[in-house]
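Thread: Modeling a multi-component assembly for a lab meeting

Hi all, long-time lurker, first post. My supervisor asked me to bring a structural picture of a complex we are working on to next week's group meeting, and I have zero experience with this. I have the sequence lines for every component (306 residues in total). Could someone generate the structure of the whole assembly? Inputs are pasted exactly as I received them:
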Amino acid sequence: MDGTYPYCSIERSLGIVGERWTFLILREALFNGVSRFAEFQSALGIAPNVLTARLTTIVDAGVLEKREYKEDGARARSSYHPTAAGDQLKVVLAALQQWGDEFVPREGGPTILRRTTDGARPVRVGFVDDAERPRAVEDVQFVRSEAYGRVSP
Amino acid sequence: MDGTYPYCSIERSLGIVGERWTFLILREALFNGVSRFAEFQSALGIAPNVLTARLTTIVDAGVLEKREYKEDGARARSSYHPTAAGDQLKVVLAALQQWGDEFVPREGGPTILRRTTDGARPVRVGFVDDAERPRAVEDVQFVRSEAYGRVSP
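Re: Modeling a multi-component assembly
Sure thing. I ran the full set together rather than chain by chain. Output:
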């Protein structure tokens, strides 16, 4: 974590998910379970050199983890799997998805739905307090911490 | 909602919050309660013509609402206030903030904290099912809707 990182954590996150190819790769990995180089390529129609560069950035950011796999008679290849940070990024992508579906809708409705894995119940993204109670947006405030004054913008 | 909109709702949302000045303006408006042109200017050090252009985009996107106000002896001026869409965008910015604070941390810790307005309890962003039960990331899946096949990427 060096001094060139933006002081605002939202900005640091956008520095990762805000780049278009990076975000599309992460969407395939996190929402669709894509893991192999060739699968990313065919799902996104991305040039191999661009895909390699973006995957390197994503692995360096600690969001996907690179593994080797080998199929019979073939040379070793790489696959990419969500880390804990990658799994938690699902909350961010789901929040963006939910907002887009509600406030920038497209004719025909949402193309991807959020459901529980057990009983197929609908799931939304929202605020939850430390007693595990959901909270409305109006019930939440953003306050400056003691660290606020100690860093320069 | 015309046909030039990206088919993916995450991408449509990133089209709005992903632009750096737009995001910084929204952060001031939604997290810090900034509403007046001059306040945005001094908080961000942004050039007036850039600020005017970005505010127009944000108002057109339906995220902030423009109002006129007039102080004694001064000409009418504009202020900008969150719409319902703007209020819900707090969930998106808070999700980005939470992820950045956890996985791309900065020395000294978070500068902005999420708290309930009533009792100052900590608040996180997470998944909530339709019975208002918080759900872990592992308990959520993303499934394609019937609309998925009907639109072209």
